[in-house]
Amino acid sequence: MADVHELARNWLLWDTNPTTKAEVQALVDANDEAGLRKIMTPRIAFGTSGLRARMEAGFARMNELVIRQATQGLCRYLEAHAPSLRTHGVVIGYDGRHNSQTFARIAAAVFVSQGVRVALFSRVMATPFVPFAVRTRGFAIGIVVTASHNPKEDNGYKVYWGNGAAIIPPHDGGIAAAIDANLAPWADVPSPDEMPGHPLVSDPMEEITQAYMTEITDDLCHARELNAEPAFPIVYTAMHGVGYRFVQRAFDCFGLTQPVPTVLQVEPDPDFPTVVFPNPEEGKGALKLAMETADAAHSRLILATDPDADRLAVAEKQADGSWTIFNGNELGVIFGARAWTQFRKSHPDVPADRCTFITTAVSSQMLGAFAASVGARFQTTLTGFKWMGNCAISEIAAGRTPIFAYEEAIGFMVGNVAFDKDGIRTAAFVAEYAIELWRAGRRLSDELHALYLRLGNFVIETRYFFCYDKAVMAAIFDRVRGGSRDAVAYPTTLGGEPVLRVRDQTTGFDSGEADRRTRLPITPDDQMISLWTASGLATIRGSGTEPKLKYYVEAFGAPGEPRDVITAKQK
Q: What is the pTM of this model?
């Protein structure tokens, strides 16, 4: 166990921020060992694409010293593994949270101290613009300071590799080791305040924004002239995040009438004052103001991005006046089918088996059924767009075309503009689709129903429980294994049906493979078990970014089998 007093001494020696330094000094003066241990240990792990934690003093938290240490380690790792570091430099963006701009400038200052050129966005930026910049401009890496839809107390540090996708092994482990080897602050690092205007620092804001808008228009806009015709108003909320001006610009590029803003939520506000959780996936609670705005504007469609604008929620008013808030799996198959239709119109000669749909192991199996129905390939990855983005890149390298990727947590990648989820381009994509449906007297819900008739009903439930103790989390999963990782006895029935296959990503076991080894990357530090029956799939996993135990239970049936029968089976 780490000596918490030594950690505190190092903190007081290295920290230059008077506020966080005073926080630690107060705990030292009070001899509060428990308080020190809480903020100092374990050291924040370089995990799911980077770092994410509560903002306060300590090596277990997000703060200026931790950002500096992380960037020092990242810089040393890149010097050894990214030849383009010296020629192309790095790109850094940030969201509208407390301290995000400061953290971004600290990261820039560390790179500048080593003679590395930095493209530092001058204002808050939607997360997808950074992987887009990496892909199109050849930066060695991209960094985004964001905690996505986490509570206001949190912040994060997300890293994209030079291929434009979020980092995966072995880079994450290599970067973590380099951070541990570079904890003492380097000398001669300029002040973060000197970054704007520094000779090694440029502002890519307008260049990247314009290039992004041009590419999404060329790739995804199919009816610009029709989009300009009068239609129903579309309501938009940024959930107090950064998305509004970028959604406005995307709508303009698509020829769409500007969305009606949810006034109290469209400007960045790090305190997220109108919502308990700044996550549009939370449903009616998060979308309450947007629904009120839509009712007043006589709108039938709400689009909502999360605070860093990489996720998109959609709600649609039905003929009876009620609102349907689509979940991520429903939107995934609707968007996937639409993406396929539009791709075939513009690329009729590309063989279907050279096209790929991608989703995660915890998302609905319905996208796979759709892919099979059109003769396309279907790939399943571990949870998270870092895996799907890298999968899409591998498909392109093999001469295939990724059509669409999604995860159930309302993350969507339409086309290959950027190898990550993107609420901006998806908002324009679905707005164009919804208006086309409106002209035909249809809704998104009608398209979903038509897909159920064609492919069969898929009913999935996703829930979570908070679990703050990793030891408790591990014990829960070992109980599913029958007691331990060593003497496993997985469940043999599920919902009264025999279990036909078990996949344990933590141990690498997969009874569905001839050698009993999973084909997905083994994740010994993350818990995840899946169980299949003839008519369903259940997965439990520990979240990589939040203290949650999540479960996903799906039942499916043949076309024509009543939905209520499938729903009863799922329950």
A: 0.94
